[in-house]
Structure formats: structure tokens, C-alpha cells
Amino acid sequence: MRVPIAHSLGKEEALRRLHARSGELAGMMPGGMADVAVSWPSEDRMALAVTAMGSSVNAAVEVGESQVVVEVDLPMALKFFEPLIRGAVEKNGQKLLK
Q1: Average pLDDT over residues 26-49
Q2: What is the mean pLDDT of the chain?
């Protein structure tokens, strides 16, 4: 699942905000109970490993000048929840960038 989120911050400011607020991600997951491991494999890419309710999901956030693109690798068991997850990614992604 690929979710682009537009912003007008510029790349550097978007990166600064994501670095500063990445610790808030676990509380933003649907259901509010998730373990989230965050790493930065490159300067403009954040990797996420999310574990909740017995499922694990990997995601990545690519930061650009005018948008961030969140890519979530949903297992087949969670495909049914894609609209809910997409909505949460859009809403909370915008919150992280504020």
C-alpha cells in the first residue's frame, strides 16, 4: 500500500519534524497498542517495524521536498483492513508533520 502525503515544509523541515516526533508513532496506531521500531537507513528514508495484535508490518517513509510517501507492506491477513489503515496513515502522517 502506497500513501502519498503532501506538505509545504520543504525536505529539511519535514525530516526534522519526523525525527523529532517519531516516538509518537506507537500511540497513533489503530487500537493504540503497538510496538514500533524506527530506524533511518538513509538520510531521507525512515523504516518502521510495527507489531500489534499478533501481526507484524514493515513500512517505510520516503521524505521529499513536497510530499512524504508511506509504503506499508500489508500481509494478506490485514488486506481487509487496508481502508482503515490508509486513513490512519493519512491522518497521523499529517499530524506528525505539523
Answers
A1: 86
A2: 90
